[in-house]
Design a protein that fits this description.
With about 160 residues, the chain is α+β, with helices and mostly antiparallel strands. Helix content is about 30%, strand content about 25%. A five-stranded antiparallel sheet has the order 1-2-3-5-4, covered by helices on one side. A hairpin with a 2-residue loop joins strand 2 and strand 3.
C-alpha cells in the first residue's frame, strides 16, 4: 500500500555573500549593498525590518572594521533570507579579540564615546551569537524574525519599535 501524496510548498532560501575591505568605507558599502539586496528580496526600504537590519549590518560591520581588523584582510558579510527570518553574519580574521556573547554585554558608561554596538544588536535582534570561524577568526551572527503578513512601511511616529 502506498501513502497518499502530500503537497509541500517549496522553501526558498536566498544567500548573499560579499567580502569588503576592513575600512570605514567597506563597512558603509556593506550596509548599502545589504539594503539593496534585502529590497530585491522583498524587504523594502523604509520598513521596520529594513531599518532594523540596516542597524544590525552597520554595527556588526563597524565592529569588524574597528576591533577585528587585520591589515591586508577583508571582512565578510553573509545574509541568509528564509521565509520567516533574515540572518546577518559578519566574519573577520581576528580570532584573539572575541567580543562578549549574549548575556555578557555590559552597558558602557553614559559618557563613553563607544561600546554601544553590541548593546544595539542585543536589543534589536531576536537571536545573536559569537561563533568561531574556521580556519581562523570569528563570526558574529544576528537573526531577525519577520512577520508572516508581510512588511509595511512605517507610517510615522505612531509606528512603534520592537517590543
Amino acid at each position: 500500500m502506498t501513502s497518499p501524496s502530500t503537497h509541500q510548498q517549496p522553501v526558498s532560501v536566498r544567500v548573499f555573500r560579499q567580502r569588503f575591505s576592513s575600512t570605514p568605507r567597506g563597512a558603509r558599502l556593506a550596509r548599502h549593498l545589504a539594503l539593496h539586496q534585502l529590497d530585491s528580496w522583498g524587504i523594502p526600504h523604509g520598513t521596520e525590518a529594513s531599518d532594523i537590519l540596516a542597524v544590525l549590518v552597520a554595527e556588526l560591520a563597524a565592529n569588524a572594521v574597528t576591533h577585528g581588523r587585520v591589515p591586508g584582510r577583508d571582512f565578510e558579510l553573509r545574509i541568509v533570507r528564509t521565509p520567516g527570518s533574515v540572518r546577518i553574519e559578519v566574519s573577520d580574521t581576528r580570532g584573539e579579540r572575541r567580543p562578549p556573547g549574549p548575556g555578557d554585554v555590559a552597558l558602557p558608561s553614559p559618557v563613553a564615546e563607544s561600546g554601544r554596538g553590541l548593546v544595539l544588536v542585543a536589543a534589536l535582534a531576536d537571536r545573536w551569537a559569537v561563533l568561531d570561524r574556521v580556519p581562523v577568526g570569528k563570526t558574529v551572527r544576528a537573526e531577525l524574525d519577520l512577520p508572516c503578513q508581510g512588511l509595511f512601511p512605517r507610517s510615522g511616529p505612531e509606528a512603534g519599535g520592537r517590543g
